[in-house]
Specification:
Jelly Rolls; globular; mainly beta; 3-stranded antiparallel β-sheet
Length: about 110
């Protein structure tokens, strides 16, 4: 997982921001039909995480900040990638994927 901070530095109050916009390039080492989830966790606390299912390839993603809790004191965002397959379908395999993020911006 990687931590990202907005272009203006750490934000103490996120009230004026509506969404996160980024270009995601997802390259999976597994089968083409294997789903992946983008995980955005403000402040690194898993109870406040937002998930978005991704398809392989390049895509523009906009994630609303409207329903995230406790953003007022958040100083960073943790962004990660995980398999969307349930453990029962993965068996003992730990799938690996590669994700590159470009053009990360906060939208008013």
């Amino acid at each position: 997982m990687r931590d990202f901070v907005g272009a203006d530095g750490p934000k103490a109050n996120w009230a004026g921001w509506r969404a996160l916009r980024m270009t995601v390039d997802l390259r999976s080492a597994g089968p083409r039909d294997q789903p992946w989830r983008l995980v955005v966790t403000p402040g690194g606390h898993y109870l406040n995480a937002r998930y978005l299912v991704l398809a392989p390839g390049v895509q523009q993603v906009e994630l609303s900040l409207a329903h995230l809790r406790n953003l007022r004191g958040t100083r960073y965002l943790r962004i990660g990638l995980e398999s969307a397959l349930p453990v029962s379908r993965r068996g003992s395999h730990e799938p690996r994927g590669i994700m590159r993020i470009r053009d990360f911006t906060l939208v008013r």
